[in-house]
Design brief:
The complex is a heterodimer of chains A (645) and B (139). Chain A has 645 residues and is of the alpha/beta class. Helices cover 29% and strands 24% of the residues of chain A. The chains are: A alpha/beta (645), B alpha/beta (139).
Chain lengths: 645, 139
């Protein structure tokens, strides 16, 4: 137990010292029982600050350290590393006097509270035991959830480094949103042309196990040792036999809208979502098919020369053991029905940006021809509405980040296709921060003579065969009324609804707009709060393709850093049963979510340290108080309660 | 002198404590009456801790955990929910207004919610006045 504790109070510039009277805190703590030394410093986390701690440990012969500074989630590791050279790192604790003190309270109460927090931290520290880390093996395989460009890039990077990847995609093909796009800003290269080689690499890579048309249904375990259950949905087609000849599709009588074309084109019940799909195979849509009911149709089976169709295929559950998980579940557009003021859902000629994207695509519903959907004619006046649902407190408050750029691209591609057409863009601000983006916007504005109108659109409705767009030009203060043939809404980007389900399985946080919450907004942008789980792409926040690819590679590098070690350190703050006094009632065994509490032949409970995650539910449940949490004992917590009151 | 409530908070490491940090990062003001003790899971909060806090003179006890279904440790918060209900009944029998014990779900992203519920709770305890246990002590 620590007898000579050193207190180091950080000013954090003015972040703490501007509110908390740090000198008074240090002075008051100097006379607290067990404290041998107390001081303040401007930036404790800086190199001189860390050296000050080292120097004082030696000079003052300290055997434990409390650093009063920011949240332990920021720098606990930093300071424990400093102390590691002198004593067990569990002899170092942090008192949070910034996030939960100086940043939220006024001066007097902040100083009072800082002293209480410090006293509580000293009490906790005095009860700490010297603990050694527990080592667990690492399963050097990675699960990647989502086969869009983010998932593809992360998978390829990890697989190229020599580790196995299990890539799970819900849809029949990988490719995600990027496969749906026409051309990409600001270079205007064809999206599919740059994506499909990567998709093919995924399919051919010896280290990638591609599981398309599959869903993750259960995840258990912990960093380095996750057990994953994946549901492989039946395609009713043998992937190996299918030659993608298309004979089955020709004879199939059931017609439904194609999701890949944003339901703007029909497909058959037996289908391939787009010609370059990977894996390259047909799939039968069970809901739409007539033939799965015994012998009702079966025309495709008769037409298939390769004999690839199997109506009896069953769903299969595959179990995989992995050490790390990358979540790259991507995005959806904000539900169009929610924008009632823009009349969506009722009118064919008011479409979303992704629908327009499909229209522009050479493989899309119109073969790349821009049409007014209600008449099939070429639209002569098109209005593009940016921030449809974004930057709007009635819908999504955030900026969707990519709409300014793709709307400029849309307008440019429209002008290239319809030379005598007029294009109008309603915008709030133009955000063009990427490389070459501002130049692209300037080109669109000047060379293509697109009418940019600064202001929001109040209402969109049909009048005859025209779509009336009412808005205001905030630069002139005048009302604007446009009779448009076609209106394209740049809908807000939201995380996939399914991201919430995945996040629940993984126990990671999801914030506004279904976006995954990273461990730190600046310094840990691809890590989740749970070790071994990483993010990539639009599942974390709206972003364009270059940012997504960069983030996916960053994620891969985190996974690879983990795989470079044979064993991982695990927190030693686990439960311990006092076996002598255990009555063997088994309550702890029933409450432990990890199966770490196990009954021994003697009838008494024992904690398996490798499985214990340290939540402490068992300790709270034990009716005879015979379970202690290491370094978070009942006694320590009660002492802390006492000093904070 | 006006009554300044003393409140002990048990915040889970993954959601509520991170949410409290978020309130700080967003510079949201709330009264300094509450001091947080970090626990790994709200399920770690032994009913004894709650009694201990009241016995030592707390006017209120706050427990913050992950939203139902989002517990970092699968289901620790469900246990907490049941324990808090039980403790509220027990406190009532002991003559302590059960409103002095408050359980809230605060996710790591909900800094605003954290500041709001602390403001509400401090206000409520202010209205309820000092804990009856403390008054007896004074006599």
């Amino acid at each position: 137990m620590a007898k000579r504790i050193g207190i180091f109070v950080c000013h954090c510039g003015v972040n703490i010292a501007g509110v908390v009277d740090v000198e008074r805190v240090a002075k008051e703590m100097a006379s607290y029982p067990g404290v041998a030394f107390s001081t303040t410093y401007q930036y404790m986390c800086s190199e001189p600050g860390q050296n000050l701690i080292r120097q004082k440990i030696e000079e003052e012969n300290l055997d434990a350290v409390v650093v009063a500074a920011c949240s332990p989630s920021m720098h606990e590791e930093t300071f424990r590393n400093v102390c590691k050279d002198y004593f067990n790192p569990h002899r170092c604790e942090m008192a949070n006097i910034r996030e939960q003190c100086s940043w939220v309270h006024d001066a007097e109460e902040a100083t009072e509270k800082a002293i209480k927090v410090l006293k509580a931290t000293v009490e906790k520290l005095r009860g700490n035991e010297d603990l050694e880390p527990i080592f667990v093996p690492v399963e050097k395989r990675c699960l990647v959830i989502g086969g869009g460009i983010a998932g593809i890039q992360a998978s390829l990077d990890i697989a190229d480094a020599g580790y196995e990847v299990v890539l799970v995609e819900k849809e029949p093909s990988i490719g995600g949103r990027m496969a749906q796009l026409s051309e990409t800003f600001p270079t205007l290269d064809c999206s599919q042309c740059i994506l499909t080689p990567k998709m093919v690499s995924v399919a051919r890579h010896p280290n990638i196990k591609l599981m398309a048309y599959s869903e993750v249904i259960d995840i258990s375990g912990y960093v380095g040792n996750f057990n994953v259950k994946i549901l492989k949905k039946p395609r009713y087609i043998d992937e190996d036999k299918c030659t993608v000849c298309g004979d089955c599709e020709d004879v199939c009588p059931a017609i439904v809208p194609n999701e890949f074309d944003m339901e703007r084109k029909a497909r058959k019940a037996i289908y391939i979502p787009f010609p370059q799909a990977v894996p390259s195979t047909y799939t039968i849509d069970r809901e739409a098919c007539l033939g799965l009911a015994p012998l009702a149709c079966a025309q495709c089976k008769e037409a298939c020369e390769a004999d690839a169709i199997d109506y009896d295929m069953q769903p299969e559950i595959v179990e995989e053991k992995v050490g790390a998980i990358v979540v790259a579940t991507g995005y959806d557009l904000y539900p169009k029905e929610n924008l009632t003021e823009y009349g969506y859902g009722e009118d064919y000629d008011i479409i979303t940006s992704l629908e327009f994207e499909r229209m522009l695509s050479a493989s899309g519903p119109t073969g790349g021809k821009i049409i007014k959907p209600s008449t099939g004619k070429e639209p002569k006046k098109v209005v593009f509405v940016q921030c449809a649902g974004s930057r709007d407190k009635n819908h999504m408050p955030y900026c969707s980040s990519i709409c300014c750029m793709y709307t400029a691209k849309h307008a440019l591609l429209y002008k290239h296709a319809v030379h005598d057409g007029e294009a109008y863009i309603f915008y709030i601000d133009i955000r063009a921060t990427g490389k070459g983006y501002e130049e692209f916007i300037a080109r669109v504005m000047e060379e293509e003579r697109i009418n940019y109108i600064r202001g929001k659109v109040a209402k969109i409705y049909r009048e005859g065969d025209k779509i009336k767009v009412w808005g205001i030009d905030t630069l002139t203060g005048k009302k604007v009324e446009i009779d448009a043939d076609l209106v394209v809404l740049a809908m807000a980007v939201v995380g996939k609804e399914e991201t919430r389900d995945i996040a629940k399985l993984l126990k990671v946080a999801v914030g506004e707009g279904n976006f995954l919450k990273e461990a730190h907004p600046k310094l840990k942008p691809v890590e989740s709060l749970s070790r071994g789980i990483y993010f990539a792409g639009c599942a974390q926040s709206p972003k364009d393709i270059p940012a997504t690819v960069a983030q996916a590679s960053a994620t891969a590098s985190k996974v690879l850093a983990m795989f470079s070690r044979d064993k991982l350190e695990k927190d030693p703050m686990v439960a311990v049963v006092d076996e002598e006094h255990c009555s063997g009632c088994g309550i702890c065994i029933s409450v432990c979510p990890y199966g770490a509490m196990q009954r021994q032949p003697s009838g008494k409970a024992k904690c398996i340290e490798a499985l214990c995650e340290g939540c402490g539910t068992c300790a709270a449940a034990c009716p005879s108080n015979n379970i202690e949490m290491k370094n978070s004992s009942d006694e320590q917590i009660k002492k802390m309660v006492e000093v904070v009151i | 002198m006006s009554f300044e409530p003393k409140i002990v908070a048990f915040l889970c490491n993954w959601c509520a404590y991170a949410g409290a940090d978020m309130a700080g990062t967003s510079r949201l003001k709330y009264p300094g009456n509450m001091v947080a003790i970090k626990v790994m899971c709200s399920g770690r909060v032994d009913p004894e801790f709650i009694l201990e806090a009241f016995e030592k003179g707390a006017d209120g006890v706050f427990i913050g955990g992950c939203h139902p279904g989002d517990c970092h440790y699968v289901n620790g918060n469900y246990r907490t929910r049941r324990r808090v209900e039980m403790m509220k009944k027990l406190l009532e029998q002991m003559g302590i207004n059960p409103r002095r014990l408050r359980l809230e779900w605060v996710s790591a992203t909900e800094g605003q919610k954290f500041a709001r519920v602390v403001n509400e709770f401090v206000e409520e305890i202010r209205r309820l006045g000092p804990s009856p246990i403390k008054k007896e002590e004074a006599i």
